[in-house]
Amino acid sequence: MQKKESNLYDVESLDNLLGNEFAIGKMRSFASGIGKNMKNAPLLLYGPSGTGKSVAASLLAKENNWNIVELNASDYRDKESIEKTILSAATSKPLFKSRNLILLDEIDELAAGFDRGAAPVINTIINESKNPIIFIANDMWDQSISFLRGKTEPVAFKKLNTEVMQKVLTNLCSRFSLKVNRNALEMIAHRANGDARSAINDLSVIIGAEDNEEITEVIGLRDRKIDVFNLLDKIFLTNTFSAPLRSITSSDLTNDMLIKWIDENIPRRYRQNEEMYYAFESLAYATIFGSRATRSQYYTYWRYMNVLMSSGIALSKKEYPNTSNPYGFPKVIKELSSSKTSRNQNKIIAAKLQRVFHSSISKIIKNEMRLLSQSVARAVKDNKEVKQEVFDYLASTFQLDDKEIEYMLNNQ
Fold this sequence. Notes:
This protein has 412 residues and is of the alpha/beta class. The chain has helices spanning 21-35, 53-63, 79-90, 110-113, 118-128, 162-175, 182-191, 196-206, 212-221, 228-236, 242-249, 255-269, 273-296, 301-314, 331-338, 340-357, 361-380, 384-398, 402-410, and strands at 43-46, 66-71, 99-104, 133-137, 153-156. Strand 2, helix 3 and strand 3 (99-104) form a beta-alpha-beta unit.
């Protein structure tokens, strides 16, 4: 097996993770208790992004020879998927490691991705698990994870102060023999606002800078918000490598949002099919690297993603782009926004049907609700007496009110 190349995001042990020593001490006490077969409450690591929560959990597993079984926000779906992935791992022993570490990252994102069956199965996992469990969240007070309060041991991760951030960056420069002047490191540490991941991103950007003026320009770019239309201009209207790349590093938009904007506007700017082909190909590869970075915690992949979704698309064109059409707002966001009320209503009805059908919310919406709506529509068609009987039956069986039944009939 080929050894993975070292990168700026590699941390060898918990001792090298600076700035949250008290939290790491609590984690090690937790692991010590697990090693003595004590029944410890799961840990809830919480705090701002970029403070080392996920890295600390991974290093704790490495330190104790634990196998990691992980779910994050992109994996959370419903009760069945969580049971399939986590429950068996929580109650069994791995073949080649001492224990399984059940790691549920981004747990406070469950409001968008979980159905109502998820919280009970997580409680079951907590009660039945024979292995350590760690939850990770940005906000422990988020209402969506209120069911975890009193069942977990909270461990706070705080923003790194400027002095600690400088030490982190200095250690990285020493470890990888990087030549970056002290002023640049001070600028990065100050503007990172406690986010170590952001600081390391900035450090990776300026590694190739040749002089102090260029370093200052690169770092200073992120201090200025570039609105999305100016950012798109940098990508679609320039024909250089550096300008598009620097524009996305200065943007406050998330990578996912940037990809949606770029995807929507490639056909509005590029004229030739070949140009659009290469542009969409670059965007597709960018999403692949973004997904790999998230799943593997190997964030060097972000560098490839950033190049592909900026410079790769900019250099796909052969002629000056079409500027007659205005930029378009991503349709996928419009559709999600316009359908939010409908999707919420579907979930409310499906939750009531779940008491009878014992399936996931998503499957009930897709299958049982549709079949039930069609059956009811045929039964009550042009027959008021039958309609009232059917409505009464649905009300008594599923606790649906007349408005919910009418909604199903009108949206089958």
